[in-house]
Amino acid sequence: MNRLYHVTLSPFCRKVRLTLAEKRIEVELVEERYWEQSPEFLRRNPAGKVPVLRYNGMLMSESQAICEYLDETIAQPRLIPERAEERYEVRRLCGWFDDKFNAEVTSRIMRERVWKKVRKEGYPDSRMVKAGLSAIKFHIDYMDWLLNERRWLAGDNMSLADFAAAAHLSCLDYISDVDWNRSENVKDWYAKIKSRPAFRSLLADQLPGMMPSPQYAELDF
Ligand SMILES: N[C@@H](CCC(=O)N[C@@H](CS)C(=O)NCC(=O)O)C(=O)O
User: Which domain CATH number covers 176?
Assistant: First the structure.
């Protein structure tokens, strides 16, 4: 059985889950408390990070490498297009969300509002939360600008860039930290991706002791 070691509200794990589901690959999900850095976990991934995917006898880490491998080996549906220029744009945007958006928004807000509570590491630092909530405005405006010209973030077809972005936004939406009224384009885009069957398992997620926000699983939000 394929197995994904993950944490529920990790954007990197969610990007891999969306890719697996879109490719119809079944996996057993195993919650990994990566911050405890158990010897078994470090044997699976010496980098000490999730996601780790056990797939066809391989142990795989690094979400982008995993998703690109799955896309190269399972043809349908294509998440990274054929033309080099289009591939470039998908990868640029995956980098945008997994590096820039993560550093400026996801990691700041999630650390303060979720991980400190889960790991009993004290109270949220409101300055960090504020900084994250301020930065997300610029990112939503940037997505709005992209979506003025495109049906999906990287072009006319859904791609891994959409999954990367949706993975981050869905973590924040779980704790109600996305202002969907800021951009109709972004709201419509999220409604479209959220209604895909691949999204279902994410919408059913519940973190013990932390219920999702009321609109989190609503397709009409
Ligand atoms: N570049 C990695 C980043 C993964 C990552 O940072 N995962 C976090 C959880 S969201 C983690 O495991 N952090 C542990 C650490 O940095 O030591 C990927 O795309 O898989």
Answer: 1.20.1050.10
The whole-angstrom separation of Cα 169 and Cα 186 is 11
What's the pLDDT score for residue 49? 98
Question: Cis before residue 77, ω within 30 degrees of 0?
Answer: yes
Question: Closest ligand 1 atom, CA of 110?
Answer: 10
Q: Summarize pLDDT for 96-136 with one digit per residue, the tens.
A: 999 999 999 999 999 999 999 999 999 999 999 999 999 99
One domain, residues 42 and 89: no
| Residue 219 belongs to some domain of the structure | no
45 & 125 share domain: no
Asked whether residue 52 falls in the same domain as residue 117, the answer is: no
The count of domains in the chain is: 2
The CB of 111 under 6 Å from ligand 1? The reply is no
Q: What are the tens digits of pLDDT across the range 157-209?
A: 999 999 999 999 999 999 999 999 999 999 999 999 999 999 999 999 999 99
Does residue 102 sit in the same domain as residue 68?
no
Nearest CA to ligand 1 atom 16: 49
* Residue 59: domain span: 3-73
CA distance linking residue 20 with residue 1, whole number of Å: 13
CB of 102 within 6 A of ligand 1: the answer is no
Percentage of residues in the chain having pLDDT higher than 90:
98
Distances (CA, A) of 43 to 49, 65, 103, 141: 11, 19, 27, 42
